[in-house]
Write a structure and sequence with these properties.
Layout lengths: L3 H4 L2 E2 L1 H12 L7 E5 L12 E2 L9 E2 L3 E4 L9 E9 L13 E5 L11 E4 L3 E4 L2 E4 L9 E2 L10 E3 L7 H9 L4 E5 L3 E6 L4 E2 L10 E2 L2 H11 L3 E4 L7 H11 L4 E5 L10 H6 L3 E5 L1 E2 L1 E2 L5 E5 L9 E6 L3 H19 L10 E5 L3 E2 L5 E9 L6 E4 L8 H6 L2 E5 L5 E2 L4 E6 L1
Parallel strand pairs: 1-20, 6-7, 14-17, 14-18, 15-16, 18-23, 21-26, 24-27
Antiparallel strand pairs: 2-13, 3-12, 4-11, 5-7, 5-8, 6-10, 9-10, 19-22, 22-23, 24-30, 25-29, 26-27, 26-28, 28-30
Helix pairs in contact: 2-7, 4-7
The structure holds adenosine monophosphate and magnesium ion.
The site of magnesium ion has 5 residues, from loops.
């Protein structure tokens, strides 16, 4: 077994993220279930969804006005004979001959013989005559049948996240139930002699276990099923038992006990399993001591079980979940891999910091419409849960910047 020093593998943020994405790319979800359409919101689709007919099923008018033959509207003004009215929901029974027009509403089927719709704004109607004052080309203001989707075309693929737009697609093709991937089970083990359950009155020297709950919330929001295991004392025996229990799940998250202190035992106990460590630190703040690795699974054929040792400071736990644990969990939930994308906003007030680490600091995005601006939340460091709750994003500070002026564009990670 390698010694502690041999195990030390501290990567840049980007390299650490890359390692997680690469491991995640080999993971597959564990099962499937059929759900009612609305119950599938936020889950991952496990089957393709096909168009059951052309969309639109008929050539659709996209404006209120008159269906015409473009060739009749070359000399202006053009006077045409109105032969009827077509509303959304009308059956397409009319047929236009040369010199004719039909009043038509948005969403209605364009009649045979017509090849364009003139907007009502460019027309004036007297009895059964309409005068058209603006020229038009064939195809204007019409979506041809099948232009959005052809019958049997694949509209959603396995691995798609079922958000409201995907739910709209499924409903539009008449799917009231969808096959989704089973939720991965994620075990959570909080560690620390000072940590107590939230339903126990804490002694003055004790700290309530908030990390298991913030993690459970993040897991749920990512489509996983959290399993809260008992709090592990800083004792190798007990830790070993709980870690072994945790490996029954699809993924194990530990919090605390990964720093350099005498009672930070998580890495040591994992190493004895034995575990393979991909990294034991990342050049970030908060969250520098984050650990990622795997053990050989007990199943046959053996599927490796992955774990993260997340630092115990509550904001570090939250941030390292978002940066590293989330892509692995998404892969176990069957989602197509996504890259981490930072948005940009203007900095509201100057930042001074020590270069060297990539920082993800609690921040508040405000402003309105195109004028987004972001500023750091005042905080007491990565133990400051109350500050984290006042933030709505993380401001990303590159490791080479010691000072950033107000008004500069900065990167941020939305929460
Ligand atoms: P550690 O990473 O174990 O050195 O813990 C770092 C800091 O985070 C200490 O102040 C701990 O009390 C605190 N902490 C560790 N685990 C938890 C937890 N589960 N809930 C809240 N705070 C924690
Ligand atoms: Mg601890």
């Amino acid at each position: 077994m390698p010694s502690g020093a041999d195990r030390a593998k501290v990567l840049s943020f980007e390299d650490a993220r890359q390692v997680v994405e690469e491991q995640a790319s080999h993971l597959r979800p564990q099962g499937k279930e059929l759900l009612e359409l609305l119950d599938s919101l936020g889950r991952t689709l496990a089957e393709p969804v096909f168009a059951d007919r052309n969309s639109p099923p008929f050539p659709r008018a996209t404006r209120d006005g008159y269906a015409v033959r473009a060739a009749d509207v070359t000399a202006l003004p053009a006077i045409l004979q109105v032969i009827g009215e077509i509303r959304a929901g009308s059956e397409a029974s009319l047929k236009l001959e040369a010199g004719q027009a039909a009043a038509i509403m948005t969403g209605a089927p364009v009649p045979r013989g017509a090849d364009a719709v003139v907007m009502v704004e460019y027309t004036s109607r007297t009895g059964d005559r309409v005068e058209i004052s603006k020229g038009i080309s064939a195809g204007d203001n019409i979506v041809p049948a099948g232009a959005e989707a052809k019958r049997a075309e694949r509209l959603l693929s396995p691995g798609s996240l079922l958000d409201y737009a995907a739910i709209a697609v499924a409903s539009s093709v008449g799917r009231s139930r969808l096959l989704v991937y089973a939720k991965p089970r994620v075990a959570i083990v909080a560690t620390g002699d000072e940590i107590v359950d939230i339903d126990v009155p804490p002694a003055p020297h004790q700290i309530r276990n908030s990390n298991s709950y913030s993690l459970a919330a993040q897991i749920q929001a990512t489509g996983g099923d959290p399993m809260l295991l008992p709090i592990a004392r800083d004792d190798p025996e007990r830790l070993r038992e709980l870690i072994a229990d945790g490996f029954e799940a699809d993924l194990l998250l530990l919090t605390g006990g990964v720093s350099m202190g005498k009672y930070d035992l998580v890495e040591q106990v994992l190493a004895e399993f034995p575990a393979e460590f991909f990294f034991t630190g990342a050049q970030i703040q908060p969250g520098r001591p984050v650990v990622f690795g795997r053990v050989a699974g007990a199943s046959s054929p053996p599927e490796p079980k992955y774990f993260f040792g997340l630092p115990g400071n509550p904001v570090s736990t939250m941030v390292t979940f978002e940066l590293f644990a989330r892509p692995l969990l998404e892969a176990l939930a069957g989602m197509q891999p996504r890259k981490l994308i930072f948005l940009h906003a203007r900095l509201k007030s100057e930042i001074k910091t020590k270069p060297g680490l990539k920082r993800f600091l609690p921040a508040q995005l405000s402003g309105e419409f195109e004028n987004a601006e972001v500023e750091l939340i005042r905080w007491q460091g990565s133990g400051d849960i109350a500050a984290a709750a006042r933030a709505n994003c993380y401001l990303v500070i590159p490791p080479d910047r010691g000072q950033i002026a107000a008004g500069e564009w900065v990167s941020l990670l939305m929460r």
